Amino acid sequence: MKMTFNPSVMATLVENNWGWFLNQKVAIENYCESVSDGDSRRSYSCKEELFAMSRPHIITQHHRGTPADLQTGLETVAMGTSGSHDMEKAKEEEPKDRKSRKRKRKRRSDLNTGEAAAMEYHKQVRTKLVQAHTAFLSLGRASGLFQEIPADIVPVGKPFLDWGPGNSLADLCDLARLTEDKRPLAVSQGTPSEESRDIFNRLVLVDSDQPIVKCLLGSRYLLPPRSSFLLSDVTRMEPLVQGGLKYHLILMDPPWENKSVKRGKKYESLSPRQLFQLPIPALAAPGCLVVTWVTNRQQHMRFVRESLYPHWSIEPVAEWHWLKVTRAGEPVFPMDSPHKKPYETIMLGRFKDQSEDPMEMSLPRHKVICSVPCVIHSRKPQLDEVLHKYLPPSPICLELFARCLQPNWTSWGNEVIKFQHLDFFNEDKAFPS
Predict the structure, then answer these.
(1) CB distance 345 to 294 below 8 Å
(2) What distance in Å separates the CA atoms of residue 314 and residue 149, rounded to the nearest whole number?
(3) Is there a contact between 129 and 343 (Cβ–Cβ < 8 Å)?
(4) Residue 289 has pLDDT above 70, yes or no
(5) Cys-Cys link to 367, which of 19, 106, 305, 354 (CB 3.0-4.6 A)?
(6) pTM beyond 0.85, yes or no
(7) 132, 134, 138, 140 alpha-carbon torsion, rounded to 10°
């Protein structure tokens, strides 16, 4: 599918030498103004609660929730001392019973290999991230981008839809593994609802130049114009390869293995062996830009850089970062938090195919993408606006492990339409077709 841009509604609020400040809510709403829904047309907007990140997850004395309170904290961070005084003060104010419980735990003074590697990486990127944040904050305050959350807006603590064990899209994909009909299915406003039920393991094409609301699997979904998707698990990706398209951009957010995922059972993770089997060389056009979201574990970064990308004939060319901030502009975690960082890594590479000369645009080695994150776990910002300048004209784009759709993109995942459910949108107004 070809990627297009609407210059009248841009999700990029600020662009400077450090990178971009994005509004993810605007990016989602870019295709929601005139939606075909049966005999009428409706306008939808993304629910405000999804991006009501008003305060950091960890509050320190330098983070009080308003833009005016941030400058002192930023100066402290820039000097490399952020967090130490606050951590000491927090320790002094700890209840005695908590202190006694901590004393009973086995003390460990040395960092393990993974922790030492993570600290070293943080030291390498920290200065750039702090400087980028300071620049974004200054521009954002001057232009009124940072704001307080209205009192009547309450952030959601859990996803709106509680997909039970028997009803989740991922579970249904498991049940549908034996589906034989793999022919592409074109869906439009006039497609019979009975045909729209059989959407597993086949490429579904939205045959409309306007967004549509469609009943799929017994629920109503908002489908972007000229989008396409494959709802399947990792063992049923053949329809993508058989479709014959070669993509100029492949974006992916793999479900990385980690202990918190195993404990919380938030989603099924994939092993390195399973990631090796993804058919990237069969899907990539010469010079294809491959963009991978990676957790902050150094083990995963080394795996992508030294094993996974070379296995796919991809040359690593850049490492960018996503800096997550509140609506007031504060990092969602202290920059030097020993547990969680307010940023994630994006690794970019180019597919090397010697069969023909690729059309490549050089990539900067480091950029920062800053935005207010969605309150729902692991929903990443859309990157089409910031990546288009590094792609050929009218690029063909694919997202893997997707949980939402984009206009003119192809998306694959076992929950690929999850965030297109109408429960994630407000109906603003209706008007005749």
Answers:
(1) yes
(2) 43
(3) yes
(4) yes
(5) 19
(6) no
(7) 60
